[in-house]
Design brief:
Radius of gyration: 19 Å
Strand content: 5-15%
GO molecular function: metal ion binding
InterPro entries: Baculoviral_IAP, BIR_rpt
Organism: Microthyrium microscopicum
CATH class of the largest domain: Mainly Alpha
CATH architecture of the largest domain: Orthogonal Bundle
Distance between the termini: 35 Å
Largest sheet: 3 strands, antiparallel
Number of domains: 2
CATH topology of the largest domain: Inhibitor Of Apoptosis Protein (2mihbC-IAP-1), Chain A
Strand order of the largest sheet: 1-2-3
Order of helices and strands: HHHEEEHHHHEEE
Structural class: alpha+beta
Keywords: Metal-binding, Zinc
CATH superfamily of the largest domain: Inhibitor Of Apoptosis Protein (2mihbC-IAP-1), Chain A
Helix content: 25-40%
Protein name: BIR-domain-containing protein
Number of strands: 6
Length: about 180
């Protein structure tokens, strides 16, 4: 189960910053030879790259670099320095909405042409799936409903400072603080 705030990149990142491992009292661990807390073992990929790609850190003694996606639950380990988390995530779980958005963002970041149709059924469903928990969906009279947000090309990308933050995967514009009359188009 993901941490309570695993949908936020900063919450995911925090899981890489603290030692993970068995919960034993310090005195018990010393007496038994102790199970050391596990820390992220690689310089690359970085915890920041992994967190942005939807992963939080869930190591075990047999898999000290195991990560899990907060959205789809896929678990990946065996990370290599040349691995790009956004691409690995998408390759292993193409139906994950978050993986799809990260894949698009990665292509944009490296100036690779995005040949896919942003209004294709796959991309529309992917954006729509990110809006679980959209805070304005149930509000009467609000224009920024999920269907309009998705049609406008937004995906839900909340953060501690913007609970209703959205990002356009194609131009990387990020906005939040939506109000009743704001039109997503």
């Amino acid at each position: 189960m993901p941490p309570e705030n695993a949908h936020m990149s900063s919450g995911r990142l925090a899981t890489f910053m603290v030692g993970q491992g068995p919960k034993r009292r310090a005195s018990s661990a010393k007496k038994r030879g102790g199970a050391a807390l596990l820390r992220w073992p690689h310089a690359k990929p970085s915890p920041e790259e992994l967190a942005k790609s939807g992963f939080y850190y869930v190591p075990s003694a047999s898999s000290p670099d195991n990560c899990q996606c907060f959205a789809c639950g896929v678990m990946l380990d065996g990370w290599e320095p040349e691995d790009i988390p956004a691409l690995e995530h998408h390759a292993h779980r193409t139906e994950c909405a978050w993986a799809l958005q990260c894949y698009i963002k990665h292509k944009f970041d490296i100036d690779e042409p995005i040949d896919e149709d942003p209004m294709s059924e796959e991309y529309v469903k992917g954006r729509e799936a990110t809006f679980e928990g959209w805070p304005h969906e149930g509000k009467r009279g609000w224009k920024c409903k999920v269907a309009k947000m998705v049609e406008a090309g937004w995906f839900f990308d909340p953060s501690p400072s913007m609970e209703d933050g959205v990002t356009c995967a194609y131009c990387q514009t990020e906005i939040g603080g939506w109000e009743r009359k704001d039109d997503p188009m």
